Amino acid sequence: MVNKHSITAKAHPNIAFIKYWGNQDNSLRLPSNGSISMNLANLNTVTTAAISQGSDHDSLELNGIQQSGPVLVRVQQYMDQFRNIFIKHEHLDIKSTNDFPISAGIASSASAFAALSTAAANIYDLDLTQNEISALARLGSGSACRSIPTGFTEWKTGNTHEDSYAVSIAPENHWNLWDCIAVIQSSPKDVSSTQGHNLANSSPLQYARIKDAARRLDICRNAILNKDFETLAEIIELDSNMMHAVMMTSKPTILYWQPTSIAIMQEVRQMRKNGIAAAYTLDAGSNVHVICNGNDIQKIEDLLVGIAGVNKIIKSPVGSGASVVSLT
Amino acid sequence: MVNKHSITAKAHPNIAFIKYWGNQDNSLRLPSNGSISMNLANLNTVTTAAISQGSDHDSLELNGIQQSGPVLVRVQQYMDQFRNIFIKHEHLDIKSTNDFPISAGIASSASAFAALSTAAANIYDLDLTQNEISALARLGSGSACRSIPTGFTEWKTGNTHEDSYAVSIAPENHWNLWDCIAVIQSSPKDVSSTQGHNLANSSPLQYARIKDAARRLDICRNAILNKDFETLAEIIELDSNMMHAVMMTSKPTILYWQPTSIAIMQEVRQMRKNGIAAAYTLDAGSNVHVICNGNDIQKIEDLLVGIAGVNKIIKSPVGSGASVVSLT
């Protein structure tokens, strides 16, 4: 065993084509339905973990700011859960940076817990498989498990902690898809994803959404494997609408869409009528992710920046999974 | 029998609190779920019917313009169905005027067929009950049956032509509610309501929406009877979201909402947080109906006209049912 002082791991957020919304088990984050996503190469969370010298708690520095309050508590509870599994006792000093806005519909918690679980597994010298790390990432944030394997990944629901993880269904170089994110709001959301997941079952439509999920997953997986953009476009727009349908019919209702979100969704449908390979999908937020063919990216960006209310465009091709980038 | 030369009938459109979307029988327009609405006193369709002298077809003048094409065909097919039931042969010359924009999310077909069925029943000298006229109106446009009785009305699904009609659940003076309609688009819709109804069952969410309808109808009916605005607000917003959830997940998906629709929906939720009795509901279109307490109408109008994209406000208190206004 090398005597490591610190481990730095990197992970990308992912954008879901078939969405995760609602749990069959909230504490283990076992999802109600399977999901499929693509990792985003140009967005990065880089997290360094070091064994804390003599401290009785984990510390967290996020984007240069030492954390206290709910963000720190969430990470500490996660690390306690992590240590319980492996009977570890040392606390960690964690430093994490994101190069994209957090809590605004870009899944920062996914890359955060993917990078943290990877760093923690290594600093504690655990010899884990990718599936095991994916399951651990899931405990922090469900969709984080999809940021562990490479490229296009699928998270099968599973029934226990051990068998609920994501696997790669196609590598990052399989298909030149890009996510062109129209950022329309960078401030934190009214309702966090974790709160929203707990409300999912209060929608009279959630059960129907889950019951139909295997069908949507099959269509989406095959569209990726066959590089069939038109089929992919239809199923991801349907699935995004379906998740927001559940949100807007839960108790209380959640309406993440803003006027600009609708303007973009309508524009993307028009683009496709005009022969541009583009499809929209929205996570739990108001930003619109325009999934598109790499060849069309400039045309799409030009059209999106012309829409009132679009603050910024973030573009990314398909990304790799989580990895250790350095140890000292 | 008086020898009538012509009959003029009047009907109001209605705004649904619990929506009609999808049929169990398309040709008879037997709905998949019951619905509740309020008639709109300030919006009027006035229709005059006269027995055509020797013509072998019905004619239709709409808002001063002699009709041909699909609008005429729809009315002719309706009148053929109507005559078949009563074994009548004479065709009609029909003149109809609306004082509000047609085919833009304000249910012009409801008041149109409510007025026409009332006029036709009288010009043919049929001695019909209100329930029978309501069922006949339904054959022309499902929601038209709700414009026959007065005030707040409920349409129970029924299983046959004869038992699928609407009845009044509270008279027009029961509660000082207003509909404050923010008109944001007066052009005809991409997808007509009739086409949309036929797509309803292609949504994986429609069955769940229908299965939950009895619960929503009970809550809405009781909220009206008890004049409980907060409960009414929550259930009509939920029900509107639920119908649009089905629309946006049908095959193909239909997205009636425009950016301004969302801006208004968000504003109405904010109004309610600020203690104003207002709730939104949208029919198959982009206009937003703000249901509100008559005392708050001026405040609400002032807020709505300040929203970019709102072209016009149409206001109406609760209206009566359909009636004959003159005969010559």
Task: Give a brief description.
Two copies of one chain form a homodimer. The first copy, chain A, has helices at 70-86, 108-123, 130-140, 193-199, 206-211, 213-225, 229-247, 259-273, 297-305; strands at residues 6-11, 14-18, 23-25, 30-31, 35-39, 45-51, 59-62, 65-66, 92-98, 152-155, 166-170, 177-183, 278-281, 288-293, 312-317, 323-327. With 328 residues, chain A is α+β, with helices and mostly antiparallel strands.
Percent of sequence in beta strands of chain A: 15-25%
Any idea how many domains of chain A? 2
Mean pLDDT of chain A: 94
* Number of continuous helical runs of chain A: 9
Which class best fits the helix and strand makeup of chain A?
Answer: alpha+beta
CATH arch. level architecture of the largest domain in chain A? 2-Layer Sandwich
Query: CATH top level of the largest domain in chain A?
Result: Alpha Beta
Oligomeric description of these chains? homodimer
Q: Helix content range of the residues of chain A, please?
A: 25-40%
